[in-house]
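Supplementary notes for students who missed Thursday's class. We covered one full example, reproduced here. Read the sequence, then the structure, then the short commentary at the end.
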Amino acid sequence: MRHRRVRVIVSLLALALLLAAAPEITAQPRTPVKIAVLRAAFVYFTPYVAEAKGFFAQHGLDAQLIYFRSGAETTTAVVSGSTEFGALATEHVTQVRDQGLRLKAIVANLTDSPFTLIVRKEVELPNAARGYPQVIRDLKGLKLGITGRGASTDFTLRFLVKEAGLDPDKDVTIIATGGIATSMAALQKGDIQGYLAFEPIQSQAIHGLGIAKPVIDIRKGEGPRLLQEYAYNSMVAKEEYLDANPETARRMVAAVLDTHRFLADPKNFEETVKVAEKYFEGINPALLRQILQESLKGYRPVITRQAVANIGEMLRFAGLVKRAPAYEEVVDTRYAPIRFP
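Structure (token representation):
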């Protein structure tokens, strides 16, 4: 009897020790990754939400968002290896590959082009009723703002101006005004008469401050055909990194897909508003809700072949690349989703 009790006690002690050690055995350290983004721009809302709602962590990533002032800077960060990933305009993947640098997109953060070309209210637009591209000709002689040279705002504005029959280097003055705060200040002071805006800039300038009006709103189907099926912003890494770290790449895609599922569910709208309030301080709450209601449909993860073809054609027409790369040169098909949900 005594031996039986001893055996039971020993068994219980062994089980207790096993259970105590189990967390140490099964717990896996998260993989640290840095992600290049811009601060307080809805183009980057997907990684903001993934961070705030814990989707990166749930998929074993210790993700740190590193903030830059323009898309050109985020691209440089990824190319240089300062960050493993970047939430980049997919156009940058096409452009740098034309220069011999190998980046690849693995999942889209935002498919719809986010831009509204705005001008100060006093700017006359005699061709407004004729729409695009005629109305762009009304901007001849104006100073137009972008975030930075080589940024997506630069590419897109040059394309719009050129497709309207104007020379972007002679008929308008394109000025790099930096981040959101400095760009808004430049528009308010009249240092620029127009700006290729993304949220929250266009809503703040048009509805919040009342200093601007839209020329074309690409989000509403206005503007060039090539921007209607698009893959504006994607999670991007160097090809060699993706080759060497396939599991990390798969985890990143899984985290972004969970984020898209969260954003696509109407039941999560109030939680989404709370996340936006954290990353977009100082914006009128009603305006913030309006931006989200108008923007959420653009957050989709699939990068289509037509979207990549449109990006290549746009950049080639604008004289920014010599050739449009194939889909497989831009998108890493080992990881990229082909359908959603």
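Commentary. Confidence is low (pLDDT under 50) at residues 12-26. The first helix runs from residue 2 to 26. If anything here is unclear, bring it to office hours.
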